[in-house]
């Protein structure tokens, strides 16, 4: 064998050894863990008696919260506009899923907790703040009649809101118009109301979905108040998608609909289902006085909500989680509770911990 052939054989042998070594490294088992970060869940609960009157003076011990049948421990509590109380600093330990490539998820619209696992000052501030209220006004061609009266009712509602609340005013026909972004400046919002004009077809569900997405960016209580004068005739989004996003982001939807919209049974049923699923209410106004009373009722409702929050106990369910809130006392068994009935986990950042033996990740 010549010297050239020997060198070539050695070169091929080196390449073969390198390939075998790389294959061994690629097949080396890696014990990786995806860490699940548990975040604070906020609920707003309305409690009324058999006559529809608000029940006040309840304590945290009067409520039982379940998620997928798993009992939850209430972490913070408040009634109406009173200061939020921190009840416990405890939270479930972070859970780990070994050797999995499933993307980690967390409830959207929830505040991130501190590294020590306690209710942080930022979380407490978020749940203590006033409501973020998004008013969505129907300016479609359904609104040619009674347009000014609706503007007056909305303006009175905005003026009456407590100073701690922030308000945004949007309008919709075929497209969404963000006339006034979320602000505590009432005059800015009122100018947005007065600048609206009636126009095109009504794409209610398209525009409501965009409004819920905007609301989801803010912590604390989130409310969308919709004034609609007719059915949806231009949306591509089904109302079920809107309701699920609102539930998952903790956004309550209230709807005030005129007699025109009530004439269509499908719209009536959809409005009632959507608002009930998110913890809001639907109102059907026959005239401008009913519209004003509906707005006043929404304001009253926001002032009487109980705010509860909890850290979810360990739960393997990464899809839709059902929330159940009940009253513990027998004397309250005839009372009616209204809150969102669940949420779907949303994509979140994850912590990947590499436990490979002999490595020290930097």
Provide a descriptive summary of the structure in words.
- The chain is globular, with a radius of gyration of 27 Å.
- The longest helix has 25 residues, at 3-27.
- The protein is an alpha+beta fold and 362 residues long.
- The chain has a domain at 128-303: von Willebrand factor, type A domain (Rossmann fold, 3-Layer(aba) Sandwich).
- It has nine helices and 19 strands.
Q: What's the CATH C level of the domain at 128-303?
A: Alpha Beta
Q: How far do the termini sit from each other?
A: 49 Å
The largest sheet, given as strand count, sense and whether it forms a barrel, is: 6 strands, mixed
Rg computed from alpha carbons, rounded to a whole number of angstroms: 27 Å
Annotation field: number of helices: 9
The overall strand count is: 19
Give the topology.
Elements: H1 3-27, E1 32-36, E2 41-48, E3 63-67, E4 70-72, E5 74-79, E6 85-86, E7 95-98, E8 105-107, H2 121-128, E9 132-138, H3 147-160, E10 166-172, E11 176-183, H4 186-194, H5 204-215, E12 222-228, H6 239-248, E13 251-258, H7 259-262, H8 265-278, E14 282-285, H9 288-303, E15 306-310, E16 320-327, E17 336-338, E18 342-347, E19 351-354
Parallel strand pairs: 9-10, 9-12, 12-13, 13-14
Antiparallel strand pairs: 1-7, 1-19, 2-15, 2-17, 3-4, 3-16, 5-6, 5-15, 8-18, 10-11, 16-18
